[in-house]
Amino acid sequence: MELLTWTWILVGLTFALYIGIAIWSRANSSKEFYVAGGGVPPVLNGMATAADWMSAASFISLAGIVSFGGYDGSVYLMGWTGGYVLLALLLAPYLRKFGKFTVPDFIGDRYYSKVARIVAILAALMVSFTYVSGQMRGVGIVFSRYLEVEIDMGVYIGMAIVLFYAVLGGMKGITYTQVAQYCILIFAFMVPAIFISIQMTGNPVPQLGFGSMGHDGVYLLDKLDGLQRELGFHEYTSGSKSLTDVFAITVALMVGTAGLPHVIVRFFTVPRVSDARKSAGWALLFIAILYTTVPAVAVFARTNLIETVSEKKYDSLPQWFHNWEKTGLLKFDDKNGDGVVHYVADRARNELKIDRDIMVLANPEIAGLPNWVVALVGAGGLAAALSTAAGLLLVIASSISHDLLKKIILPDISEKGELIAARLSSVAAVMVAGYFGLNPPGFVAAVVALAFGLAAASFFPAIVLGIFYKRMNKEGAVAGMVAGLGLMSYYILKFKFGFFDGGLSAVEALKAEWWFGISPEGFGAVAMALNFAVSLLIVRFTLPPPPEVREMVEDIRIPNGEGQAVGH
Amino acid sequence: MPDNKKMHEYWKENLKYLAVLLSIWFVVSYLFAILLVEPLNSIRFFGFKLGFWFAQQGSMYVFVILIFVYVRWMNKLDKKYNVEK
Q1: Nearest-angstrom CA–CA distance, B28 and B61
Q2: pLDDT in tens, A479-507
Q3: What interface predicted TM-score (ipTM) does this complex get?
Q4: Where are the domains of chain A?
């Protein structure tokens, strides 16, 4: 069967499944809308969290990033998994015991202050909007590559689907759709990886395969190191980033992960404190299945690609090369006119441009796998993009309808009114996200770094201190969050946008001025440290929190007697 | 709810667990995979250089194990202090 037919069948089936689940799991109360009624079993919550977490970028781009960066790519692998340890040990069980609906709920109650709540709402909206702006675009791109429709059309279809199940089902609908989406995306990622591992090393486990020997009896990684050296790239297994920067980026990504509101809120959806711990473990396990396969795919794809194209005659290259040339993901420019592909690190002599996304998208074709596997990767990419977008939209919707409307503007709003407001704000959020998808800001890549940096600089210190330091008060927490957010925004504006030095063209030259040699991606680590320092300094000169807040802290530290997630 | 002194002990034991687990978390990622990656890379581990393996495989396995160990320890602790639901 034709590839396009297969793709329409698989995408159609998965979409029908999502819609079916949405109808079955409609939300009937605001509690169901915000936290799925607090009754999600931990294993399922783990799957939903994993799907929520792994975006189109994880699914499509991460293997390519690792493939081109080699060791440098480790920051993403460790950063985006290690954060779950912090989440499980320092945040999840206590926030579940606290038992409300959102992160601003916790900040507002723990720091007994409207100001703190508003700062938290602003931070949640900033983080979620920056993050979601890339996701709808991702949906459009996957549609256009696999279904041969316009990117804009793809964005509209994606909006319609997300709108349907997010508005109807709220957190409950989103959670159960995400469970299905996890199964589809992990299957779609693993099948080609396993096939290719068998082809290249004879080992069906990709995680072991990329440390094994190829058919020529040479360890794959040694061979790749050699190839990279020959072509003038840095060795695959050692990086090109500075040690300080690798350290800082890993810290920023880990802490940022633990501070992202759309991840934290998942732990409000399980029945008990012990389930919150357990589901963090399941979530990380499900994420690690993909994340430990990524570096294997990266090595297979890079070795395959170099061996197939490097120093080969252009006319004798396999068909997939020409197929992907048409999409613009591969570009050959015969600079010296000898008809041979020279792929080297030296930019002046290099003749081949490779888009990093090709490492996952073209992998099944490169390995000669059947059409249904190629189509499956398309359905998997869509599952990844849709699930993340939906999770973020819910945070945005609940920040508006619950945190802003119910808690600040209209405290007397009825249960029914709040549910309607929640649905309306998710419609509005989908529209805004769709707008970003249709008119992508040129800075999508930059804003993801910003989202992690902001989460690390604001929420993580405020929540951790709120749980582990009983004397922490509102003055300290608010000052810390404002200082962290301010410094992080300043650094991104200066070094990512060249805002103070004449615009984007200045960014390259400004690299020499990075503070401590830390890139904007890693600066969340510094901004987080500032937040902690400011909080701990201010708290020494201001009044301790009132006794009922101290009691509340004592209460969230103990698992039993937990309040149901009511809070009305 | 049980008395304050007991809860204080519960909390102290919890903090002790956190200290142990987070130390391991730090060692496998920041120490083995970043700060000590070069010396460890001179050790072979099957087809991998050891430092590289920790950065792209080992640290993630350890992270998963750490959370499940934490779950086990805490479930036991909750039982011991009779605070599980």
Answers
A1: 10
A2: 999 999 999 999 988 998 888 988 888 88
A3: 0.96
A4: 3-24+31-303+368-444, 309-361
